[in-house]
């Protein structure tokens, strides 16, 4: 344990405004938005509402992206100011790497697959 | 005495380091460090998602997602994780108000939702394996079990962590170290819910589409 301030007054008097813990309103808003953003994609897929697989895939990916933003803002309390902006920096850096990993893998492996097709000799 | 002298010096000499004392309490940068850990965990999942994206349609003449997945079960599972997220949020609100007993009760509820999620996932895995859809069956199933299993392992460790922290809080109360740990677990838990959004969208919903 790290010393005397552990026994200090129970409610952080050390000005921890850099770690906002959210509010009841924020959590409930995030939860309700998440429920809607989860229910619609399940409904679209389970009842085959759109009748087109590609269109459905694009729509549910858009819903997933929206819900990830909702979770980041309302549950993980992301904003450009927390930890002096370094949280956001870390997130942006990670998203760039994630995009490269995903897009790069799919792109390379798709071309590898189509170039290794059994009917290559007909080219 | 020495500090006053140092400050007097700092006023005359340009300082190339932070002279402020605002992070003197332990764990001042723990939240940032834990966030960076979560970002590295995010990269692990990115690699597993990429693997699934590449191999997810290689069925080796075996069953496909449309044959195997029961979306109603997945919907229930998603609800469990979402409920556990909001109950953890309620626990954090109780912690902010210093209501330890209320916080512990919300943590118990969170743990039960987490356990329900794990139980449903294990039931699903057992069901798949009983039908012969084992990880050895096809590249699709290998990447499926690796991705979803890694997420499930994270939830398992989150539950162990949750239990340990509840014991810590009951023994030592809401001291600052415990608050910090609970906030880290809060980030971990909500982060797992974010990963699950990707899992149910890319693996389950898109796996059922033709």
TrEMBL record, chain A:
Keywords: Cell membrane, Electron transport, Membrane, Oxidoreductase, Transmembrane, Transmembrane helix, Transport. The chain crosses the membrane at residues 27-46, 53-76, 88-112. It comes from the Bacteria. InterPro entries: Cyt_c_oxidase_su4_prok, Cyt_o_ubiqinol_oxidase_su4, Cytochrome_c_oxidase_bac_sub4. It is a multi-pass membrane protein. It is found in: Cell membrane. Pfam families: COX4_pro (PF03626). Heterooctamer of two A chains, two B chains, two C chains and two D chains. Belongs to the cytochrome c oxidase bacterial subunit 4 family. Cytochrome bo(3) ubiquinol terminal oxidase is the component of the aerobic respiratory chain of E.coli that predominates when cells are grown at high aeration. Has proton pump activity across the membrane in addition to electron transfer, pumping 2 protons/electron. PANTHER family: CYTOCHROME BO(3) UBIQUINOL OXIDASE SUBUNIT 4. This is Cytochrome bo(3) ubiquinol oxidase subunit 4. It comes from Bosea robiniae.
Automatic annotation (TrEMBL), chain B:
It comes from the Bacteria. The chain crosses the membrane at residues 34-54, 74-94, 106-123, 143-167, 188-209. Residues 1-208 form the Heme-copper oxidase subunit III family profile domain. Gene3D superfamilies: Cytochrome c oxidase, subunit III, four-helix bundle. PROSITE patterns: COX3. It is a multi-pass membrane protein. NCBIfam families: CyoC. Belongs to the cytochrome c oxidase subunit 3 family. This is Cytochrome bo(3) ubiquinol oxidase subunit 3.
């Amino acid at each position: 344990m790290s010393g005397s301030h552990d026994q200090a007054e129970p409610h952080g008097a050390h000005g921890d405004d850099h770690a906002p813990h959210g509010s009841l309103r924020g959590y409930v808003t995030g939860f309700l938005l998440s429920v809607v953003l989860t229910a619609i994609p399940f409904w679209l897929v389970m009842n085959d509402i759109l009748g087109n697989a590609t269109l459905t895939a694009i729509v549910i990916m858009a819903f997933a992206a929206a819900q990830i933003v909702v979770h980041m803002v309302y549950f993980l309390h992301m904003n450009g100011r927390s930890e002096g902006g370094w949280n956001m920096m870390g997130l942006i850096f990670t998203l760039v790497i994630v995009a490269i990993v995903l897009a790069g893998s799919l792109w390379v492996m798709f071309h590898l697959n189509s170039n290794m097709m059994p009917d290559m000799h007909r080219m | 005495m020495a500090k006053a002298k140092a400050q007097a010096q700092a006023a005359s000499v340009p300082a190339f380091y932070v002279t402020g004392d605002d992070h003197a309490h332990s764990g001042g940068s723990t939240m940032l460090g834990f966030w960076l850990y979560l970002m590295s965990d995010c990269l692990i999942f990115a690699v597993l998602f990429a693997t699934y994206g590449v191999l997810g349609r290689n069925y080796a003449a075996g069953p496909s997602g449309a044959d195997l997945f029961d979306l109603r079960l997945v919907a229930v599972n998603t609800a469990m994780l979402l409920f556990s997220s909001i109950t953890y949020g309620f626990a954090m609100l109780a912690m902010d108000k210093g209501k330890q007993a209320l916080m512990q009760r919300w943590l118990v509820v969170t743990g039960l939702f987490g356990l329900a999620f794990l139980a449903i996932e294990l039931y699903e895995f057992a069901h798949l394996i009983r039908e012969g859809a084992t990880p050895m069956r096809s590249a699709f199933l290998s990447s499926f079990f690796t991705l979803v299993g890694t997420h499930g392992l994270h939830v398992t460790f989150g539950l162990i962590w949750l239990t340990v922290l509840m014991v810590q809080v009951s023994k030592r109360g809401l001291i600052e170290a415990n608050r910090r740990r609970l906030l880290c677990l809060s980030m971990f838990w909500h982060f797992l819910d974010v990963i699950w959004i990707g899992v149910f969208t890319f693996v389950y919903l898109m796996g059922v589409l033709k």
